[in-house]
Amino acid sequence: MRWLRSLACITLLAILSGCGPPLHERSITVESTEMRFIPDRLEATLGEQVFLNLRNTGKLGHSLTFQFPSGDRTISAEGGMEAIMAFPANVEGSFRFYCSVPGHAGMEGVIVIRKP
Ligand SMILES: [Cu+2]
Predict the structure, then answer these.
(1) Is 51 helix (H, G, I), strand (E, B) or coil?
(2) Is the pLDDT of residue 10 over 70?
(3) What is the pLDDT of residue 1?
């Protein structure tokens, strides 16, 4: 009974993938260099899954730390390297991000998360 096996596979896939509404995805690329982020103002919509790509085009290592109500989220990349983080945009508001490398004060920006 091939159809029964197919049905079982489809059911299993549905269970594994969860039954909630599908998440929208947003990819954001932020360039870091000495001594700024480009762009320094990011936007996302409530409910999105955000994939943030930190592209360090500078010579020095840089980090990017979001200050979310749930806590800080940090990634870092050496000069010429990239790093990726994913997070759900699940709180509305404006949240600061900055580079936590000592001496890099002023490297900062904001992400604005709005209702759809
Ligand atoms: Cu930096």
Answers:
(1) strand
(2) no
(3) 53
* CA 111 to ligand 1 center in whole angstroms: 17
Q: Are strands 24-33 and 93-98 parallel, antiparallel or unpaired?
A: unpaired
* Bond into 107 cis (ω within 30): no
Ligand 1 center to residue 48 CA distance, Å? 27
Residue 91 CA to residue 113 CA, distance in Å, equals 7
Give the model confidence (pLDDT) of 24-72 as tens digits.
999 999 999 999 999 999 999 999 999 999 999 999 999 999 999 999 9
Q: Which CATH superfamily is domain 21-114 in?
A: Cupredoxins -  blue copper proteins (2.60.40.420)
**Cα–ligand 1 centroid distance for 47 (angstroms):** 29
- Determine the distance separating the centroid of ligand 1 and the alpha carbon of 28, expressed in angstroms: 18
**98 CA → ligand 1 middle, Å:** 8
pTM, entire model: 0.80
CA of residue 101 to ligand 1 center, whole Å: 5
